[in-house]
Amino acid sequence: MQLSHAMSLLSAARSEADHLGVSVSISIVDAAAWPMAFIRMDGCPLGAIEVSHKKARTAVLFQMDSADFAKIAHPDGGAYSLENTNGGLTSFGGGVVLKGTDGSVMGAIGVSGASTEDDIAIARAAAAQPAA
Amino acid sequence: MQLSHAMSLLSAARSEADHLGVSVSISIVDAAAWPMAFIRMDGCPLGAIEVSHKKARTAVLFQMDSADFAKIAHPDGGAYSLENTNGGLTSFGGGVVLKGTDGSVMGAIGVSGASTEDDIAIARAAAAQPAA
Amino acid sequence: MQLSHAMSLLSAARSEADHLGVSVSISIVDAAAWPMAFIRMDGCPLGAIEVSHKKARTAVLFQMDSADFAKIAHPDGGAYSLENTNGGLTSFGGGVVLKGTDGSVMGAIGVSGASTEDDIAIARAAAAQPAA
Amino acid sequence: MQLSHAMSLLSAARSEADHLGVSVSISIVDAAAWPMAFIRMDGCPLGAIEVSHKKARTAVLFQMDSADFAKIAHPDGGAYSLENTNGGLTSFGGGVVLKGTDGSVMGAIGVSGASTEDDIAIARAAAAQPAA
Asked: Which SUPFAM superfamilies does the UniProt record give (chains A, B, C, D) (predicted)?
């Protein structure tokens, strides 16, 4: 994934957040979980900065959306404590895997700062963008 | 928030703790979660020092009292694992948001060392002080 | 500082990097050292990601460019070991304080990935942008 | 050392800082290096918060002022790298040991935010206070 694509993802996520009337932090990581681009919208709670990054990190490290990761990495799930590995992962929605047209994982987007439902909607709206 | 106001909050919290006959640690942070003032009362358990800071930090980073944060960052809440972000947050009461007369977040107070009920009562008694 | 201003700083820094023919990571933090915006240009070494953030953090926490910080936090400087506080600071150039028209500190920009000279030139070119 | 004494040390340090026209962070730790009281004066750079604590911690852990510690924990000193133990120590002045009337170590005070000379002067002025 190139920076130009990451920037278009940020832009799409920001538009969806504006449309929903919420203020969020948005993190894009590459397929190796390294940060590519980040923005914090005006008014977003400070605690959401790291959460947006950890959601993206969780999604790409296990190649599944953080909402799906939450089902297994939970006291009632099959891999309880998995959320405590890799520097701390995020067991709730808002981290979404980004795939290329061939289905390969290109990276992930993480959104935090609004309700979990809105965070997920924003991340999905961006991820639905066609790859450049 | 200025130091003079933080000092009056410490004083109010300490009076309430004396009134309840308990010994606590009290931390005040600003709106960006940076420490402003701190005291540990004689006899307070050492473990409460960091807890008082993390309660204040939790409250201000998510702009909600740590007792409310506890409801969402819990294995049965909607944001399980959120307590593991931002260096570790505190999912029980005793961290209270401080607001200005216009409703804006000025910082937070965190109290630890007594029962959670008393910690909350002390933090609220201080937070009820009028802003300088 | 608002996101719109942080984005214009990123854009100015990126243009200068393109002009110099180098690829860098660029971090913008607010006056309390919280991340506002970040990009990593295509081809930038991965190690530069955190360095760009630490340069910006160093500049804002001590309200001096990281090139000046380097003079004091050095074995021969007056504050040797200062670079080991606050989670690790950066004792070389590329972190530049951002000031408003009234001279107050608004935040900082950190650039890493090219030579220190180029990193500094890129950060300064962006910081010279008029505040929105 | 009791909180009442720590508070009188904070007050004496703050008066000296006002007298010198500087704004600093002031940390008091007990003989076991645990925080007792802390204030950040209005306008103090944020980076000084942790430094004030590390100066006090350094002084009490090695029972010597941090200005003396700097002579040994330095690339040219006899214990180079000692500054990297105990979570990171501070090899420059501003941390001063607090002794009781019998000469025993009661704790330490750390001051940061002004010039190293002023930081030292403020810490010494407070430490010269008679123990309660």
From this structure: GlcG-like
Residue of D nearest to B23 (CA): D3
pLDDT at C130: 76
Taking the domain D3-127, which CATH number applies? Answer: 3.30.450.150
**Which residue on chain C is closest to B30 by alpha carbon?**
C32
ipTM above 0.90, yes or no: yes
3-state secondary structure chain D: CCHHHHHHHHHHHHHHHHHHCCCCEEEEEECCCCEEEEEECCCCCCCHHHHHHHHHHHHHHHCCCHHHHHHHCCCCCCCCCHHHCCCCCCCCCCEEEEECCCCCEEEEEEEECCCHHHHHHHHHHHHCCCCC
- The pLDDT tens digits for C104-125 are 999 999 999 999 999 999 999 9
C24-36 pLDDT, tens digit each: 999 999 999 999 9
Domain regions of chain A by residue span = 3-127
Q: How far is C105 from chain D (nearest CA, A)?
A: 11
| CB-based contact D50:B38 (threshold 8 Å) | no
**Residue type present at position B2:** Q
